[in-house]
Design brief:
By secondary structure, the chain is an alpha+beta fold. It folds into 2 domains: about 140 residues, 2-Layer Sandwich (Fructose-1,6-Bisphosphatase, Chain A, domain 1), CATH 3.30.540.10; about 110 residues, D-Maltodextrin-Binding Protein, domain 2, CATH 3.40.190.80. About 30% of the residues lie in helices and about 30% in strands. It contains 7 helices and 14 strands. It has a 7-stranded mixed β-sheet, with helices on both faces. Strands 12-14-13 form a 3-stranded antiparallel β-sheet. Helix 3 links the parallel strand 3 and strand 4. The radius of gyration is 18 Å and the shape is globular.
């Protein structure tokens, strides 16, 4: 399915408004950091962005349920009946936000029949919007005209995107069997879904994630990556991730690639 131009414009506005309230907190001299039950950090920016998105989506599509990182305690007995819903990470990269490196995003995805069919990601610090659906993937900076983006094909060298906090040793072992196939392998460390946006716009080739994530961490990114011609797949089955299939909202390990011809089967998982 595709959203109407009016719906897309509204989603851009919601994303930018969420980014605005995030930056209000970000620009304070100090802000309180709490911790949730899983010890992940929580700030006033997470909650403010959640409220903006919740109100905006409720007005836009009142009949579609919403699953947000900040309101995820919805029992599977209810969720399992959802055919279409919004999957939201109001502030992806809270640790990057706390460390003030600018690498945090607003993520909103539409899930239909367990598949991410639309995703929008906003990078508040750079005023960049990424979105994608079956009609393609796009990037807009500020009020400039949107530009179509596309993943790149593999070349002689390989650029790997890695988390700032996880996986360097595992990534080295993972790519070991491919070392001789590329003239060089470069690694770029980034936080949040900024990593996957770089693949979608053709600036990198692969992002392995061999540490836990949740469904709201990947849903918008997967929609954009797929719209740009790439793939986000289960690291073991090599099949695209699906959503709301079980009680747990924890993803399997996954790998993002820009070129579907990437030799995934050769990786050492």
């Amino acid at each position: 399915m595709s959203l109407s131009p009016t719906q897309l414009d509204t989603l851009k506005q919601i994303s930018r408004e969420a980014g605005r309230v995030i930056l209000e907190v970000y620009q304070r001299d100090d802000f309180e950091v709490q911790h949730k039950g899983d010890n992940s950090p929580l700030t006033a920016a997470d909650l403010a962005a959640h409220q903006v998105i919740e109100q905006g989506l409720s007005a836009l599509t009142p009949d579609w349920p919403r699953l947000s990182e900040e309101a995820a305690d919805i029992p599977f007995s209810s969720r399992q009946h959802w055919q279409r819903y919004w999957c939201i990470d109001p502030l992806d990269g809270t640790k990057e936000f706390i460390n003030r490196n600018g690498e945090f995003t607003v993520n909103i995805a539409l899930i239909d029949q367990h598949q991410p069919v639309f995703g929008i990601i906003y990078v508040p610090i750079s005023d960049e919007l990424y979105w994608g659906d079956r009609n393609g993937a796009w990037k807009q900076t500020g009020l400039n005209m949107p530009e179509r983006i596309q993943c790149r094909t593999l070349g002689e060298s390989l650029t790997l995107i890695a988390s700032r906090r996880h996986g360097q040793e595992k990534n080295s072992a993972l790519l070991g069997p491919l070392a001789s196939q590329f003239s060089q392998i470069d690694t770029v460390n980034k936080g949040s879904s900024v990593k996957m946006c770089l693949i979608a716009e053709g600036q990198a080739d692969i992002y392995p994630r061999l540490f836990p994530t949740s469904e709201w961490d990947t849903a918008a990114s997967q929609a954009i990556i797929e719209a740009a011609g790439g793939q986000l797949v289960d690291a073991r089955t090599l099949q695209p991730l699906q959503y709301n299939r079980q009680a747990s909202l924890v993803n399997p390990w996954f790998i993002v690639i820009g070129d579907p011809a990437f030799p995934l089967a050769q990786l050492q998982i």
